[in-house]
Amino acid sequence: MAKRIEITVGADGNYTIDAMEGFGGQSCEQKTANIISILGGVEQDKKYKPEYFDPDGDNLNELWNGR
Fold first, then answer.
1. Hey, which of 9, 33, 48, 55 would disulfide with 15, CB 3.0 to 4.6 Å?
2. Nearest one of 44, 48, 38, 39 to 18, comparing CA atoms
3. Is the pTM of this model over 0.90?
4. 61/67 Cα distance (integer angstroms)
């Protein structure tokens, strides 16, 4: 499945990032952190979807170790 992230920028310059589909486990955390770093600003009001807690999903340790 393709991965999709939606970024919405408001008129005030604030933005939301939503890992829409294709992410399982903690992989969305790394991908959205990269985007936040590029866009700048401070992360606020983080919400996790049920997929984040999926024990069969990707996890950051595997991503960082190149697995």
1. 9
2. 48
3. no
4. 9
CB–CB of 47/16 below 8 Å? no
CB 32 within 8 A of CB 1: no
Quote the pLDDT of residue 67: 46
Mean pLDDT of all residues belonging to the chain: 79
Calculate ∠ Cα 20-25-28, nearest 5°: 45
Residue 38 lies in domain: 4-64
Query: What's the N-to-C CA distance of the chain in angstroms?
Result: 18
- How many angstroms separate the CA atoms of 65 and 67, rounded? 6
Tokens matching residue 36 = 């936040």
CA distances from 44 to 17, 18, 47 (A): 11, 13, 9
Instruction: Count the domains in the chain.
Output: 1
